[in-house]
Amino acid sequence: MLRELANRWDAFELWVTQLAFPFQVVLAIVVVLPLCWAAAGLLDRAVDAAVLLGARRRPDRRSAPARPPSPPVERP
Question: Residue 31 and residue 21: Cα distance in Å, rounded?
Fold first, then answer.
């Protein structure tokens, strides 16, 4: 089964390399652009999850009492 997959991949590579360059570019855009978009979406979700996890572990700083504002500086 793995040999069959390798043979099919080799046949696909040969087909792509025999295409004219503009067709290779279009094919690469049609295939690579959605893959990059999906990878960016997954990475975005992973970063969001990591940020939420970090926020849950860290105590909320907003719940701490606020310092009183410092008095204005008087100038002569």
Answer: 15
Give residue 48's domain range.
21-55
- The whole-angstrom separation of Cα 35 and Cα 33 is 5
Q: Is residue 47 part of a domain?
A: yes
The C-alpha atoms of residue 6 and residue 8 are separated, in whole angstroms, by: 5
- Note whether residue 49 is domain-resident: yes
Q: How many CB atoms lie within 10 A of CB 27?
A: 13
pLDDT tens-digit map of 16-75:
999 999 999 999 999 999 999 999 999 999 999 999 998 887 766 665 556 777 777 887
In a domain, 1, yes or no: no
- The answer to whether residue 76 scores a pLDDT higher than 80 is no
The rounded Cα 47 to chain-centroid distance in angstroms is 8
The domain tally of the chain equals 1
